[in-house]
Amino acid sequence: CDTMGFGVSFPGVELPRSIPKLIYKLNQEVGVPSDRLEWHGHNDFHKVHANGATAWLYGCDAVNTTLFGFGERTGNPPLEGAIIEYIALKGDLCGIDTTAITELAAYMQSIGLPIPESFPFVGRHFNTTRAGIHAGGLRQDERIYNIFDTTALLGRPPRVAITDKSGTDGVVLWVNDFLGLAGRDRVNKIKIHALARWVMDQYEVHGRLTAISDQELEQQVQELMPELWSKHKGDGQ
């Protein structure tokens, strides 16, 4: 039990701080079998997940976790992080329905427990890009700028937030994703030129500092691209 989060994942550090050394000695020298060892950590030094995974790798059978790391003081190892780590170590889903992670996050928020927007795997913007070059990569091949297939594993397709850094690539990706365009229906840079110009005017002319909301962009698509809107949204799709 690393009550204050002092443990580190480095084997060369002296006991009691070295988790590899601690688990190894308990397992190999003292003779405590792996199935009798479990790790309980805290996040006082931002090491809680790495320390839990290290305990696993060095012979600890179980790691205590909590939903999204909620716990005493700075929290405990996040369950969803341990699940993804376990899958990565095993190279297989092992029968785990990872979309339940997203459902659990929605439940936690529904009962008034906030989740930071940038929180890994579940935050509102965990897979949202604001940089145009990243959006360009997503548009060409999602694997370039998405951590894994977040749509399949978490039910969360990658998103783009429109800012002064988004560029034309970002606007193209937003329009295609928002309208659900695929194949030959997808728009290119030429078709969204007016919308991209409107976006840049918000920052260069009007001095805007915040990201542009989906609602604002939706309104501009209706006004600047009425035929596209009518075809793909005007029929109630």
From TrEMBL:
<dbReference type="InterPro" id="IPR013785">
    <property type="entry name" value="Aldolase_TIM"/>
</dbReference>
<dbReference type="InterPro" id="IPR000891">
    <property type="entry name" value="PYR_CT"/>
</dbReference>
<dbReference type="Pfam" id="PF00682">
    <property type="entry name" value="HMGL-like"/>
</dbReference>
<keyword id="KW-0808">Transferase</keyword>
<feature type="domain" description="Pyruvate carboxyltransferase">
    <location>
        <begin position="1"/>
        <end position="102"/>
    </location>
</feature>
<dbReference type="GO" id="GO:0016740">
    <property type="term" value="F:transferase activity"/>
</dbReference>
<protein>
    <recommendedName>
        <fullName>Pyruvate carboxyltransferase domain-containing protein</fullName>
    </recommendedName>
</protein>
